[in-house]
Amino acid sequence: MPPEQPVEPSLELDHVMLARREKLQRIYNLGFEPYPNSYNRNVAIRLLLEDFDALSAAKSNYSIAGRIISLRLMGKAAFAHLQDESGRLQLYFRKDILGDLNWELFTLLDIGDIIGAEGYLFLTKTGERSLHIERFTLLAKSLRPLPAVKEKGEQVWFRWDDKEERYRHRPIDLILNRDTREVLLKRSRLVKELRNFFDAKGFVEVETPALQPIYGGAAARPFVTHHNTLDRDLYLRIADELYLKRAVIGGMPRVFEIAKDFRNEGIDRMHSPEFTMCEAYAAYEDYSFAADLIEELLFATATAVNGRPAVVWEDRAIDFTPPFKRISMPEIILDKTGINIVQRRREELALEARRAGVEVEANWSVGQIIDALFSQLIQPALIQPTFILDYPIELSPLAKRHRSIDGLVERFELFAGGLEIVNAFSELNDPIDQRRRFEEQARRRAEGDEETPPLDEDFLAALELGMPPTAGLGLGVDRLAMLFTGASAIRDVILFPILRTRA
RNA sequence: GCGCCCAUAGCUCAACUGGUAGAGCAAGUGACUCUUAAUCACUAGGUUCCAGGUUCGAUUCCUGGUGGGCGUACCA
């Protein structure tokens, strides 16, 4: 049923949108339904293009559907390009074939309208593969203009590439910019391959709470929200870790989860307040197992996404073919800076760090000094995938003590392109030790460290039931997606990234 | 959080040292039955981000705000 007034009088419309609403009214007046319920298309444009020679010889009809992205009207004939999810095809319309009524409908079409079209394939004079249209159906009238893009093949005269606009108006971005689609499709392939991989290794996918009474499993400031009926504050998870371990304790020896974590912290090229984390836990294994698994996983996912294990990111080739370099943190710091970090007193270490050009705050612990040394002097140069093993105990409250080196834990992080991609450890399963470490954290929290989470008694109670020795890993899905797609900003691999609200 | 830069028509941009805005594309009308950045003719389109200030006069200069970009800090 045509609405009485397609032009809502309350809306302030610019002349372009007004014109489209007037066309909509004229379409109703001609007796057409501009928003029908369904359409039978029988082929994707890509297939028509790929098998053009055979299919055009057959002279049979094909019906396709998509969005009009260009329109060239020439009196009693017209050309248009139709885009569907697989490609673009030129359409050729003629008044004598469509008939007067349908031709009139055709003249009311705009760039952006979605139509279904049926006809046979032919080659134009200039050699472009085209569809000779015998009938078409308007499937959705577009009331808002797309930004004007002028392009021919690779040559583009007006590209719509204002970054902010692209983030804010993803539907338009996806319609106009093929690379956006490509990046996000690759991300989808990555996530799918992660699931395949863990599934094949016998991991069970579980879902843990995003709303948590106590947050934990990482050091970060949380988002706080409120449940009305329970009348209490809840936190958005900053990590899945403590719940996945509860699942292991409960007798699920291999579990994984791919989920959003939320951290109430700064936004920049590498950080988004909500981001996707993949965590996996394997009972009866240690961090060496996790490292082996990660090597295999990165090779498999890189290959699944790009067809080969090597990528180019920020102008550098990164090859995910195993084995990756493995080096302990004390060793690489000694190698690159000459500083020995094992069993050092704070004051000496602070002095040597300052001498190496690293600023050290007065209240920093040994662990924080080591972290600063590493992240400033070593990490940026870790371009090829590299495991850094064995971290200072203070920075790793959930990791098991190293089996042979005092003051360290069995933990590794994997770096590639200078980015931290994976964090993994032999999970701490000694409940007494875990309680002590939490208490140490609680002291720091009392001293004003907002990022240290509160003590989680419920988790400790679970741990006291007994957790098998377990390897755990967390993989930053967004960052991996960046590496695999060549994206230089995390927003590029997030379909709808968070932005400041418009005034 | 700090520093630097940006904001003009639907879009991309222009307007010399301050003199109240202009082009291409998009849009509308007309012509055109193989065009493809279609072409040709005509028409319409502006609170120059917002609020103050200086000035006879502000898109232009100043202050504050809003939004954005880049860098930097924080983020095991």
Structure, described:
- With 503 residues, the protein is α+β, with helices and mostly antiparallel strands.
- 34% of the residues lie in helices and 26% in strands.
- The strands form five sheets. The protein has an eight-stranded mixed beta sheet with strand order 8-12-13-20-19-18-17-16, with helices on both faces. A five-stranded mixed β-barrel has the order 1-2-3-5-4.
- β1 and β2 form a beta hairpin.
- α8 packs across α16 and α12 (346-355) packs parallel to α13.
- The radius of gyration is 29 Å and the shape is elongated.
- It binds one RNA strand of 76 nucleotides through α1, β1, β2, β3 and β6.
Task: Describe, in short, the structure shown.
This protein has 16 helices and 20 strands.
List the helices and strands and how they pair.
Layout: H1 15-29, H2 45-50, H3 52-58, E1 62-73, E2 77-84, E3 87-94, H4 95-98, H5 100-107, E4 114-123, E5 129-140, E6 150-152, E7 155-158, H6 163-168, H7 170-176, H8 178-200, E8 204-205, E9 211-212, E10 224-227, E11 232-236, H9 241-249, E12 254-262, E13 274-283, H10 287-306, E14 310-313, E15 316-319, E16 325-328, H11 329-337, H12 346-355, H13 366-378, E17 386-392, E18 408-416, E19 419-426, H14 431-446, H15 457-464, E20 470-476, H16 477-485
Parallel strand pairs: 3-5, 8-12, 16-17
Antiparallel strand pairs: 1-2, 1-4, 2-3, 4-5, 6-7, 9-11, 10-11, 12-13, 13-20, 14-15, 17-18, 18-19, 19-20
Helix pairs in contact: 7-8, 8-10, 8-16, 11-13, 12-13, 14-15
The protein binds one RNA strand of 76 nucleotides through helix 1, strand 1, strand 2, strand 3 and strand 6.
